[in-house]
Design brief:
142 residues, mainly alpha, two-stranded antiparallel ribbon, elongated
Length: 142
Amino acid sequence: MSLSPITVADHLQAGGIAGPLFFNLGILFTKVSLSLLYLRLSLSLGLSFRVAVYAVMIVSALYSFVTAIGILWVCRPLKKYWDVAMPTGSCVDFDRYFLAISCINVATDLTLLILPIPIIYHLHLPWGRKLSAALLLMAGSL
């Protein structure tokens, strides 16, 4: 009897549903929290900046919520999520599913990383302090 190699999907399925659910809800609340901070700090900036922050917040909230709840529908029947050797049922292509989620996550992360730059740019501070403040706000996104 030969052993088959363990795939990424096997490791993900071993964690159950609670892990992906709470992970995605954590991402949701973190990104919305950062967006609300940027909105509060951007009172003197124009409407276009606020629209950009709202867009990032809405995209982050939608994809995190859909991903958190969507983990319940990746396999039919749900038991196949834990038991990949189950002969009946089907699952979505996990590689494509997680690649799509990762791409959206990276895009919103990069946007949240860049968003504090206009806030810092308009401050009346020496360049050294502006750089320190920008790095401090960007570290929150990391």
